[in-house]
Write a structure and sequence with these properties.
Order of helices and strands: HHHHHEEHHHHHHHHHHEEHHEEHHHHHH
Shape: globular
Oligomer: single chain
Number of domains: 3
Largest sheet: 2 strands, antiparallel
Structural class: mainly alpha
Strand order of the largest sheet: 1-2
Distance between the termini: 76 Å
Number of strands: 6
Radius of gyration: 27 Å
Length: 513
Amino acid sequence: MTREDYLDAGESFVAPVVTESILHQVYQDLYPPLAAHALLHGHINAGRLVHASALYYVQVKRGTKFKARSLEALVDALCPSPSTLPGLPFSPTIDINSTDSVSIFGDAVERMSRDVDLGTAMALVLVNTAREAASPRNTASYRRIVDSLLLQNRISTAANVYAQLVRDWHFRIWLSGASPHSEPLNDPVPAPALPQDRTQLLNARVAAPETDEDAKTSPAADQDSSDAAEESSQDLESSSSSEAMPSNSTEPSSEEASNGPETETDALLLDIYKPEDITPAREMRLDDPTFILPMGNKLLGRIIRAILYPEAVDMRKPDRRFTTAPRWDKDAIIATFVLVELLERRQIGARDISGLLKIASEAPEKPNFPIKLFRGGKLHRVKPYAHIESVLRALMREPPMGERRTQLYLPGTDIPAPPDMLRPLTIEAYNQLLLFGLTRRVSEFELHSLADSMKTLGVEPNQETDEVLFRRTKLAQNRLVDELLARMPRPRQTDSYLEERGVRDRPKFKRRA
């Protein structure tokens, strides 16, 4: 039987309307890889997305490895696209009143479909199923889901999906033991699933909303559950660290904690959202160029733009959209909290969310609602905005009074450098920054600003460094800076460029005869 025969069989294999028992009966057998792929794409081409999703869901759980492009095609067909009709933000791909049964996926799809459309809910469940089964998947599937969530104004859910992708990528790099720059720069495959002995740790809920049942839970039960989680995570203690909560994020009362997120989508999606303990803590600076994701910042930029520049529809002219002031509601605060946590874990750079941090520091309102957070197998109740403020204070901390310290800024931003960089720089740290530039591990603009600032400001001698050694080393550092500037393309010498450097008249060049 050829591939075309399989495709034809896929288009006429299942009736348009089936029940859950028929789906189980049809897809319970383990298909050969070629037959499973052909049947899956046959359902997608015929527009039977519920059957294609059921086939993928059952076969992946039974061990079939689909290609990443197959999941991408299925997710792309499930997620809605912007609508061309006035008054409708998107066109759903699956009718919510469809007679096809979706109970084969459990109650996950039904719960999530209360806040997002049915196609996006099914896509989220399928991506999570592939993640748990270590089935191949690519960044395009996550990108399509994030675009669909932003289209439905679900910014916090989109931030959770992006955080899941980032942590998968970092964990994959950690497992392989390779440098992040040895990976392809366009579309890295997220990390495989962990072994079975670490499944309990990965299935912990990270930021699920507070419920009445959790508020009535006794402390003894919480202690027993935390002890069990600690025993399951003993294998990761040597390679990953669970940081304690900051001093300003104390545990509020249960009545205060019941004001958390009320949507079912956050409750379920944060089941998918894995804990930060899968990535070992590393002593790196927040602006370390080694932590620039190879997938680029386009996906992160879309989430930040949805917070900073939300679009509103003119009711008189629905086809026109205009940007409003930055939104700072509960959904945007939770999304900012997720991104700030990635920043705190050194999984994204500070310059990537510099605009978001600036808006967060200038927010007129300071909401005070808590969410639940699991760290190291223990439950913490943390207030998102208080945690965001603590990170902002750590980033923008000024030097103590009476001490003269050179104020450094993160490359390409107006945010002051972290406290570690505000201290007098040692020669080793300065040489390391220059080596990053010489090895082309940062952009040309950042190299130029780094070289200019370091050459102008110089380095303050450390107390443990001898003056003679410092002077000799400073000469070598200046040579490195000169070599760095010589290897970089010079900016165009415009009139404004020359005026800034004190050159009044633009140099005149003789024309060739």
